[in-house]
Amino acid sequence: MLTGESVLVAKRTGLQVAGGCVVYEGPLTIKTTATGAESTLAGIGRLVAAAQSREAPMQRVADAVAGKFCYGVMAASAATFTFWQTLGQHLFPAAIVASGSSSALLLSIKLAVDVLVVACPCALGLATPTAVLVGSSLGATRGLLMRGGDVLERVAGISGVVFDKTGTLTEGKLRLATTAVVPGAAAAVAESLQATLQNSGSSNGKQQSNGNGSAATGDDGEGLLLRIAAAVEASTRHPLAAALAAEASSRCLKLPAVTEAKTEPGSGVAALVGGQRVLVGRPDWVLSQLPPTATSASPQLSQTTTDQAGKLTSVYVSVGDQLLGGLGFRDTLRPDAVETVRTLQQMGLRVFLLSGDDTATVKAVAAQAGIAAEDAYGSNTPREKLEVIRRLQVSTHSVHFAGLVITLATTHP
Question: Is 219 a catalytic residue?
């Protein structure tokens, strides 16, 4: 919730959790250490409130000018009253008649009040704080937290923009990127699950041979892998489960029946499909429960751990004692990310990418978005991200940070 990373964060005894985060695998027993005003959520609320009350430099100038200007306005009003009460009524007698006033005193008071109202510096004193209040409020409703009016004012003079990766340039949701099937495994699995797969129906509803040994189901190896993995993951709550469900739905795959599903927190899911034990989860967890003869095929699944876009989140699938294949997931760029980066660069701004993901993945995403490799920084904790931004500021870059890492703002005022 606080870092915006799309991959689940494992928690063990003694680690801190924040209220409002979603627990995907298994219950947690927690000890409350902060409530009410001391909570992280309350800190975010204070950040918004402080932003609305924090003065911009121009506001301080306006307040100083308005304070002195007030005396000038009152002096001008008094001078106007004195002039029309003494010399004005003799120099311009027609003015009294034209104004409809019955006496010079009423005209003098009216003109003095007119000067006081028209020249009053209220607009000068209210314009800046009103603009800051409205701007910060609108930003907060759209997920943009600004530290104050001074930050809003400095945006006009920035020379660079630092983007967080996950959820800012990317969608923050994992999607299936690659699949790999162990040669010959699909035929053996299709044969062992023939009845179950036929009862659930194939992806296209036909019984046909496809040259991969799964003619009884009408699936190719990849379709068989996806059907089994999506069926097992459908019994759990996990970002990978959602990605598999979306992929299976887009391909109109019919899923086989699953029984006795059990989630191993931080590892994967075990279930029965057609009487066969199926494992879907972390590569090391799946391989640790297979015989050595089955694990020898794991090097053939290396493409599910990385591709041209960088490191992937990998999941292995086994059926019985047979390693069936692997699936690779990654976060994808937002549809408007490339255009956004290009527009900022055309404005003369230097664009940086800053993330907690590994450096290879960050540089690959930067290349996709049109950001130079030397301007991409990976493997950073929230505190290290702050240090990177400070180094950029020292190197004569006035940078603006755009991202989901709220802890940068709430921890370091």
Answer: no
Average pLDDT over residues 261-270: 88
**Bridge partners of 319?**
278, 322
CA distance 66 to 185: 80
Report pTM. 0.62
Catalytic residue among 150, 164, 321, 357: 164
**Which of these ranges, 130-134, 135-139, 143-147, has the smallest mean pLDDT?**
143-147
